[in-house]
Structures are given as structure tokens and as C-alpha cells.
Amino acid sequence: MRNGQNRNLLKKVGTLVVLGVLVASLIGCSSTPTYEPDEQSTASLAQEINDAVNGLFDSIEKSLEGKEIDYAPYLVQVETPKIVHKEYSDYIVGSYKNTSTVTFDYVEVTFAVYDKAGNQIDTDNAVITDLLPGNTWKYEEYLFVDNAYKVEVIKVDVRVYSSD
């Protein structure tokens, strides 16, 4: 989730928790005379709860400032990369899915390419920008080498530039 969405969700959850505690405490006091708050008391209590929740989330945001979120675990490999031999050239093909709730502004997957003897003969990469949440990216990366036999992923870079 983006920071704004996180803040709104945390506010709602926090407000529900505080209200739940308040209701539970009122129910627990059922042996005492019933208290009927007037409109002004209710509004004042609601404002106090809102201020407390906002203060809590402000402190959480401050503690998270400057910390990067690692989005790579949310880029899930759907199809393992493999070498496909076509009539005039070879390609690396495969696919990844964005399982997060944010758009990945930039994704780069780096591959090591090996020949039949197991020698690394190339390093290549596939790039996509603006991979939307829930979408699957099917890549087909042209190889500039002959005799490609095997490929493996050696690095995955996922970047989100804006959290709003």
C-alpha cells in the first residue's frame, strides 16, 4: 500500500480499536447507573479519540521516514525463464506478476546465460515500467549470443518512486 493508503487504513483500525475498548469498558460497567452522554460530550470524546489516533500515526510515520520498502518479494515469478530458439535468433522468455497493491515504476530482471558446457556466455536483462498491481508481465528478451543453452535469474530490481 502507498503511505497515504497505509495512514488511512491505520487511522480506521486505530479508531475502531479505541472505540471497541471504550464500548467494552462501558459494557463492563453495567452494574453502575447508565450514563447518557449529551451531544457535546460525545463530540468532545470523538475529537479526543481522533486527536489520539492522529498523534499515534504521526509518530509511526516519523519512525518510518527515509526507510525504503523492499517490493521485490511482491514480484512473483509465474513462468520460469527459459531459452526459446526461433528461426533466426534466441530469446529469454518468462513472466512475473505484481502481487502488491502499488504500481511498480521500474522493474529490471538480470539473467546469466550459459552454453551447453556450463560456461557463462552473456548477461542480459529485461525491463518494464509501470507494472500495475495484479498485472502479469510476459517478457521476451532477444539474445545477442549464439549457443545459449540455459538461463538463470541473478538479480531482480523493483522500484517505486512515488508513494502517493
Mean pLDDT: 82
Count the strands?
6
N-to-C series of helices and strands: HHEEEEEE
Shape: rod-shaped
Strand content of the residues, in percent?
A: 35-45%
Rounded Rg: 26 Å
Written overview of the protein:
With 164 residues, the chain is α+β, with helices and mostly antiparallel strands. It has two domains: 62 residues, no CATH class; 88 residues, Immunoglobulin-like. The chain is 32% helix and 37% strand. It has two helices and six strands. The strands form two sheets. It has a three-stranded antiparallel beta sheet with strand order 1-2-5, with no helix packed on it. α1 packs across α2. It is rod-shaped and about 85 Å long. 10% of the residues are buried.
Can you tag this structure with a few keywords?
2 helices, 2 domains, three-stranded antiparallel beta sheet, rod-shaped, 164 residues, alpha+beta, Immunoglobulin-like
